[in-house]
Amino acid sequence: MSPALPDGDPAPPDGALPASAATGADARRFGVYLHVPFCAVRCGYCDFNTYTATELGGGASLAQYAATASEEIALADRVLQGAGVPRRPVATVFVGGGTPTLLPVDDLVRLLDGVRTTWGLMPGAEVTTEANPDSVTPQGLARLAAAGFTRVSFGMQSAVPHVLRTLERTHDPARVPDVVRWARDAGLRVSLDLIYGTPGESLDDWRRSVEVALATGVDHVSAYALVVEPGTRMAVQVRRGELTLPDDDDQAAKYELADDLLTAAGLRWYEVSNWARTPADASRHNLGYWRGDDWWGIGPGAHSHVGGVRWWNVKHPRAYADRLARGLSPAAGREIVAGGTATLERVMLGVRIAEGLPLQDVPAQSRAAVAGLVADGLVDGAAAVGADGPRRVLLTRRGRLLADTVVRALVG
Description:
This is Heme chaperone HemW. By secondary structure, the chain is α/β, with parallel strands linked by helices. The chain has two domains: 9-291, Aldolase class I (TIM Barrel, Alpha-Beta Barrel), CATH 3.20.20.70; 338-412, no CATH class. The chain is 37% helix and 20% strand. A nine-stranded mixed β-sheet has the order 10-11-9-8-7-6-5-2-12, with helices on both faces. Helix 6 (203-215) packs parallel to helix 8. The two termini are 34 Å apart.
C-alpha cells in the first residue's frame, strides 16, 4: 500500500496558484518530474505509488497514459501563466516511477516533446529516465538518446541473487553490465541505484554489489538504506518474524564500506546517499530538490513546488485521469511552505549536500550549537570557521550517518 497523501489545504479545482508563487521565479531553476505509475510486478519492500501494468483501464491504462499525462503538461502551463510565473526553459526532466521504460519508447519521447514544446529546454538540459535492467533494449536506449534523453538510472539494487529474491526483484543481475554498456554506447550517462540493509544481506554480499557496480565503469552511484514501510509485504514478513532487519551498526558499517569503495574508485559524495565521479555526473534534477528550486510533478501522486507553494496530486491513476478528462486539476491538496516549516526544510535539505549549508541559513538562536557538533565530530570544523570560504555546516562522514541528529540541533 502506498503512503497516504500529506495533510494540507484543499487545492482549488482549477489548480490556480497564488500570485506569490511568481516572486523571485527568474532566480530559480525549473524542473519537471514525470511519474509513470506502472511496474511489471510490485516488489515486497516498495511503497511507491505504483500499479501493475495490467490492472488499470481507460485513461489510466498504460496504453493511454502518455495522452493523459500530456493533458497535465498543458494544464501546468496555463496555471503557471495565470499566476504570473514567467515561462522558463526547463533545466531538468526526470521520468520516474514505477518503471518508466514499461511505456513504449514513442510514449516517453511524446512526453519529453510535450515538455520541450511547452516550455523549451535549457541548453545542456539534463533528461533522465529510471529503468529496470530487464526493461530496456539497445535499440530503445539509442532512440531515447536520439530524442533528447541524456541520462538513465538503473535499479540494480544488488548483485547477489538471494538478496534480490528477498527484495522480490525480478531482473537477472548478470544483465546489469550489459545494460550499462548499451546505455553508454548510446551516449547516455548512467547511474546505478543500490540498496543496503536487506534482511539476510551480509557485509560481503554488500561489498560484492558495490564492486560489481563499480566494475561497470559508471560515473554515478546511489546507495540507499532499506526502509521497511508500514503496509508493505516486507513489513508483514518482519512482523511475523519471517525476516529479521539488520541493526543500526550493520547499516552504518555498510554505508562506510560503500563510501570507502566508491571514494577509492574516484567517486565523491555530493549528497548523503549519492556519489559522482565529477560534478557533471551528479543528478542536477535531485540537486534542484535539495536546493529548493521549482518543479512541477506530472502524474498520479506526484508532488510539485513553485515559489513556496507545494501541492500533490490524487494518488490513484483512475482518479487522476478522470479529473483531467473533466478539465480539472488533479491536485488533491497543497500548503504554503513558510516560517518554521521553511526553515526546517532549508536546514534538513541543505546539510545533506557536500557544498554544505551556509551558516547564515541556520536560525540565529541555534548557531551556537555548531561548535558542539564540531566537537562531536559531526560537522567539519574548518568549514564551520570559514577556512576555505564562507562559513558553512558541512557534515563529516560520521555526521552523514547521524544527519537527523545534526538537523535537530540546528533547528532546536
